[in-house]
Amino acid sequence: MRRVAVTPVRVAGAALIAVALAMAFSAIVALADGGGGSEGLFWSSIITVSVGAGLFFGSNVSPSADSALAFASVAWSWVAVSLAGALPFLLTGVIPWIRFDDALFESVSGFTCTGSTILSNFDSIPRGVLFFRSMIQWFGGMGLIVLAVAILPALGIGGLDLIASEAPGPTADRLSLRVRDTARRLWLLYGGVTLLIAAALLVVGMSIFDAVTHAFTTVATGGYSPYGESIAHFDSFAVETVLIVGMLYCGANFSTHWHAVTGGLGAYRRVSEIRWYLWLIFSAFGVLVWVNTGELEWLQNLRESLFYAVSLGTSTGFGTSDYVAWMPAAQLVLLVLMVVGGMSGSTAGGMKVLRLQVVFRYAFRELVRARHPKAVVPIRLGRTTIEEQIAAKVVGFVLLYLGLIVAGGVVLTGLGVDPVTGFSGAISALGNAGPALGDAGPTNNFLVFPRAGRAALMALMFFGRLEVFPTMLMLVASTRGIAQVRRRRRLTRSNFG
């Protein structure tokens, strides 16, 4: 069989094969639990692996593969796995076929580690489906492409380009001279942290199923829980403590974690971003405690303020109460946390703390220049000097990010959603944070948005997970790739015609 030289198709095939394995494993979980949903999960796996194998083995790498094509490959792979991820919800009957868009929303929200849901009545959903729902967040956290680079060298495209394209997952920092080894080490650390969190949750009283599913969504900073009440279901300070530590760890840079594991804790001191990250979260915690004083009992105030400062500061989105009932000032603090998000190179969403650092340093530099026009003031982050071109790019990204929030909020309010729900929903979707404010708070689901509104939210989730520039490059590179295929076909016809 002749292979088609289309790199995005080959990469998408590899990603679909990985998702099919997750479906198969979830079917086994369903059988162990009594069989509910096992047949639907099994057939989802068969369909997905068949399509994935066909795409992977029926395509080859484009001769002109480059960074732009890597961006397109990653972006289209996420589209493919999101479509496949809707199948278990449909084939198990959890979501009827007439509501395919809702199944797609749940899948997109899962793979992008957003954690927004349209589901309710979780008690009636088969455990196998709930397990799959948590597992897709686990895959999405570190990234399916990073996994593919680790185990499938046959992809045949620059692995570092693929890893770099899958932002905000791991950064393209080389942890080894071989890119494949870098991907393996990141996934090794990711898997190890997952096991540690699951073990800790078992120790504090969770069942095996609950410990594993919540470990999946904690390490991915995704926020899906098998319970409608989220973490409030357990009403356990010990559980919340384990999750707080896990969310804080996974909201930080995984490459830095690896350097700390292999070279000592001094690796953390050399990264200025981690100080900003912790300062932002704990400052927000202090402000929340202050604002909520008199509104909440003091111990409850400390407990809920700390949990939500970490949960939304890392874009995880776990809930322990309804913060929509809090004072408007407290809700504003939570919105700021959603916008900023976690560290670069983490599984967290948001604009990223590193970009906030650069923007602040850039603004300070311009203030100094206003007073001393001839002064040469470099932009420094710790011992690192940021080049002018990079600083300008970061500022441009931040402006574009804020512009998408405004555009998303305007679209949602234009569809009839109230402004608080609409704009906070846009912030939550773009920041992959999960719950929003207003009618889309932690105790409600996203069915409060109209169908067109949920489609807009899905687009924002993709922009947030893959980031703005790569998603735009997806369209550019894909258009270019189609043009190249057509050009090669015309040449072939002329040569043999």
Question: What report would you give on this structure?
Answer:
This protein has 21 helices and four strands. It has 497 residues and is mostly helical. The chain has a domain at 1-166. A two-stranded parallel sheet has the order 1-2. A hairpin with a 2-residue loop joins strand 3 and strand 4 (384-386). Helix 3 (67-85) crosses helix 5, helix 15 (298-313) packs parallel to helix 16 and helix 20 packs across helix 21. The protein starts with a strand and ends with a helix.
Would you report the number of β strands?
A: 4
Strand order of the biggest β-sheet: 1-2
List the helices and strands in order. EHHEHHHHHHHHHHHHHHHEEHHHH
Content-based structural category: mainly alpha
Radius of gyration: 22 Å
Sequence stretches where pLDDT stays below 50 over 5 or more residues: 1-5, 151-163, 165-172
User: How does the overall form come out from the CA principal axes?
Assistant: globular
Strand content: under 5%
CA-CA gap between termini: 22 Å
What does the average pLDDT come to? Answer: 85
Main β sheet profile = 2 strands, parallel
Overall helicity = 55-70%
Count, helices: 21
Feature tags:
single chain; 497 residues; two-stranded antiparallel sheet; 4 strands; 2% strand; globular; disordered N terminus
How are the SSEs ordered, and which strands pair?
Layout: E1 4-5, H1 7-32, H2 38-57, E2 59-60, H3 67-85, H4 87-91, H5 100-111, H6 127-142, H7 144-151, H8 159-165, H9 179-203, H10 208-219, H11 237-250, H12 254-263, H13 266-269, H14 272-292, H15 298-313, H16 328-340, H17 353-371, E3 379-381, E4 384-386, H18 388-414, H19 419-430, H20 451-466, H21 468-496
Parallel strand pairs: 1-2
Antiparallel strand pairs: 3-4
